[in-house]
Amino acid sequence: MVVALVFTTNITLAQQYDLLLKGGHVIDAKNNISAIKDIAIKDGKIILVSDNISSTSKKTIDVTGLYVAPGLIDIHTHVFVGSKANTFADGVNSVSPDDFSFKAGITTVVDAGTSGWHNFTQFKTQVIDVSQTRILAFLNIVSDGMDGKPIKDDFSNINIDSVASAIQQHKDILVGVKIGHYEGADWTPFNSALQAATKSNTPLFVECHLPKYTLEEQLSKMRSGDIITHSFEEITERMPIVDSMGKLRPFVADAQSKGVLFDVGHGGAGFWFNQAVPAFKQGLIPNTFGSDLHRFSMNAGMKNMLNIMSKFMAIGMKLDEVIAHATWNAAKAIKREDLGNLSEGAVADIAILSLQKGKFGFIDAAGNKLAGKQKLEAELTIRAGKIVWDLNGISAKAWKKE
User: Fold this and answer.
1) pTM here?
2) Confidence check: pLDDT of 363 > 80
3) 395 vs 330: CA distance, rounded Å
């Protein structure tokens, strides 16, 4: 007779992690965390967030004194880079996201309608599929996006069904519909974009280069969850949100109450202190910090998304607020709630930030300067569990001369 022996044990094998972040101040708006925590990562995912994780790890990084946030999400970029001169779609006016994202703590960028349904596949093959940065996109209502072709009197390249179908086919990448850079007075492009967004159940992203449409009309047509960008600009082609007396226009406040989202969209000309400061004081806080990254903005007043966040801290936002708006708020705005958080099981996209103290100057599109006493900087960026940026070598081994 064979007797089966069953042994029980109270010994639990310790989990070995790929990466362990120790002692950082974790800020995770989704999970209401703002405290010192450890984060364990394995197979590109966040496995555990706890007060003190003592299990073994292939690599342990001391991030004491630093802020640990979800990877930042920049919802307004132009990254359909290519060889065409003087264009954004497949052109030199767009920029390669990997060249700029990680050094600013950004792990996800959203392209703001640089491509349309006709050339999106090229954008995907040429840029999205070969980039380390996660690239999502708003799809332009115009078939070829921002390729420099005039569309003022030609609506033949607008097809609502083609836009909605492309979004359905690529719903892992395409997060909404974009309208912008139209100089005509006919509402067909705007209304078509709105219909395509409704049909695809996605947000409409409105870029305010629409000089024949009044701002009030645009905001009145927009739905709760739709996004307007360049919110704080003062340019001749669009009425600013703050009037000459420094008052926030009532229809702007009404749109905010309705649920329209306001993105910064800094760019080279899209951010002015004379709009942002009084608007902030009257309760219009940006929902997201889109940078409008492109060839002409990256070396101007904008700098990068962390610089924008630091500007708003100088204006009056708290650290936890700006991180929340750059992560969880941005994820919700594009309906990608799998991103922008540090939940256990989430992809390990993480930004480790330092808060520099000193005397700093922040510049707007008009060349005006606002003084500040603190500035955010990316010390370490992790994308899908891999270290992709390390400013000061905190993940590296100390060199010793033999």
Assistant:
1) 0.95
2) yes
3) 28
